[in-house]
Amino acid sequence: MNKKGGLNLLDFLATGINKQDPAIRAILSDENGEGAVANETEALAGFIDYYTRTGDVRNHRGGSLEMITGLFARQRRRLLEDDGILLRRFLALTERGGDTIWGNVLNMKHVIEAYFTDIVCHVAESTGENNMLDDGDFESDYAWTMGGGAARSHDARFSGRFGVCFGGAGGEYCAQQQVDRLVTAGVYTLHFFLNGRCGVVIENDGRFWNANPQRFSGDTVLAWEDEEVVNLFESPEWNNVHCFIVLSEDTRNLTVRFTGIEGSRAYIDYVRLFPKPANPSYTLVIQYEGYRVTEKTLHLAEDGEDPVYGVDYENESYFDNAFVVGPAGVSGSRAFRALLDTVRPLGIEAFVEFVGKETIEQEEI
C-alpha cells in the first residue's frame, strides 16, 4: 500500500485523460496510489527523508552509507566489504576518537586505534630511533644482571616473548645494566613500559641521578647526588614512563638499575635510552597480540608495494586499503611513517614501531 499520506498522482492528470485506463493505472497510479511511478516516487521520498533526517552516520546502511563516505571522505566500498568495516574506515578519518584538535599525537593514536581492530597505540615522547641499551626487550639472558627475585617471564611481556617481573622486597636491585659504550655529555631520555610500581636507580661514577622532581612536587631539583636515590615510577596498566638524564661530561660508567618497592609488583619491558633531540619528538608504539602469518595485522598499502593484483595504490589514499602478510608486514612501516609526516607539526620528528606479544608453548618458558 502506497504511503504518500493521501497524495495521489491521478489528481494531477489533465481532465481529458481516462484515469481508468489500465495502462495509466499500471504505469502511473490507481486510486489507491499504487503504480510503477507512484511506488518509485514513494521510495525516492523515503530515501530523501532517511538520508536528510538520519543525523548519525552510524545509522546509515548500504547505498546511503556509501554516498556519505564518498561525499565526505572520497572513500569507495571495497570488494565484499561490509557496512561495519566501511563505517570504521570513515570514522577513523572523520571522527578520530572525538578529538577537537587533529594532527597531534593523541589524535594519531585515536585514528590508528579506530581504524585497526585489536591493537593498542601508545605515545612515547622525547624518543629516538636507536636504543643505547642492549636487549631492552629482555629476549635473552645475557645483557641484564638479575637479582632480588626478578625473573624473565612470558606473562610480563609487553612485546616479544619475555619481560621482567619482580615484587615483594623493597630496595633490592632486580635488573641492572651498565651502558656498554661512551656516553657523551648531553641530555638523555630513559623510557620503559611499566605495569605496576618500581624504582629506578641511575648511577654514574658513584653519583646518583635524582629525577623524582619531574613527577613529584618538592624542594629538590634535578641533580646528581652522593647518596643513592630511588626514582619512583607507577602505572596501573601497561604504559610508557620516562625521565630525563643530564650528563655534564662524557662517561663510560652510566648504569641503569631497576629496584623493587616493598609490597608492590612490577612488570617491565621495552626499555629504551635515547639522546634527547633538540626539538620535540614522539614514537607511536603499536602493539598487537596473537597474530599468525595467515592473519591480518597492520600494513598500509603504498605505491610500489601492491599486495592485491589490479589495485593501483598511487591513486589510493592511505586509508583506502590496509593489508598485511603476518607480523613480517611490519617491514611496510614506511607507509605509516609517510602518514605521520603528513600530520606532524613542522619540526617534530615522528617515529613508529610495531611490537607484538608472541605466543609460545608453556614448556618453552
Features:
6 helices, 365 residues, 19% helix, Jelly Rolls, alpha+beta, ten-stranded antiparallel sheet, elongated, 3 domains
Task: Write a concise synopsis of the structure shown.
The chain has 365 residues and is α+β, with helices and mostly antiparallel strands. The protein is built from 6 helices and 13 strands. The protein folds into 3 domains: 22-96, no CATH class; 101-126 and 283-360, no CATH class; 145-273, Jelly Rolls.
What structural class results from the helix and strand content?
alpha+beta
What is the H/E order? HHHHHEEEEEEEEEEEEHE
- Estimated radius of gyration: 30 Å
What is the number of independent domains?
3
CATH architecture heading of the largest domain: Sandwich
Unreliable residue runs = 293-297, 299-306
Measured distance between first and last alpha carbons? 69 Å
The CATH H-level superfamily of the largest domain is Galactose-binding domain-like
How does this model look, in words?
There is one protein chain. The chain has 365 residues and is of the alpha+beta class. It has three domains: 22-96, no CATH class; 101-126 and 283-360, no CATH class; 145-273, Galactose-binding domain-like (Jelly Rolls), CATH 2.60.120. It contains six helices and 13 strands. It has helices at residues 22-27, 36-53, 62-73, 83-94, 105-115, 334-343; strands spanning 119-125, 145-146, 151-153, 163-167, 173-178, 186-204, 207-210, 223-225, 231-247, 254-259, 265-275, 281-289, 349-357. The strands form two sheets. Strands 2, 3, 4, 5, 6, 7, 8, 9, 10 and 11 form a ten-stranded antiparallel β-sheet that branches. It has a three-stranded mixed β-sheet with strand order 1-12-13, with helices on one face. The model is unreliable at 293-297 and 299-306 (pLDDT under 50).
